[in-house]
């Protein structure tokens, strides 16, 4: 029998994989964009997001296991999926449109959704909320960083 954590993990990996389609010109555009001087942690960002996605998947697993298959649980699973899709869309959509403003909007949307998701799962599992805290902390930092890049790159608004 396939375990729920396997399905949640497979969906997360599938969505992440679908969001990784960037062309060379997209990457060149993003690499030439000026960064704030204080952005010294850029190399750590992939590790940060890996931890956040693992925590998010674990959070979804706890919610599922609390009441497997109920209508509320399915609604919350869709909420987790929407949050991941929004999060994964940040880089490819921003780079395809070559718009840091779009990146800022997507980042802010992800942050807002993470807080709403945490409020929604609170009655189901406190630990599921705790596992969303890394996202809720990082999202405003990432969104602010992208906003700061808009200020440094007015031609890439």
UniProtKB/TrEMBL annotation:
InterPro entries, per the entry: TspO/MBR-related_sf, TspO_MBR
Membrane-spanning parts: 47-64, 71-92
Major place of residence: membrane
Bilayer topology: Multi-pass membrane protein
Keywords: Membrane, Transmembrane, Transmembrane helix
Entry's localization field: Membrane
Similarity annotation: Belongs to the TspO/BZRP family.
PANTHER family: PERIPHERAL-TYPE BENZODIAZEPINE RECEPTOR, TRANSLOCATOR PROTEIN
Name of this protein: TspO/MBR family protein
Organism (species): Phormidium pseudopriestleyi FRX01
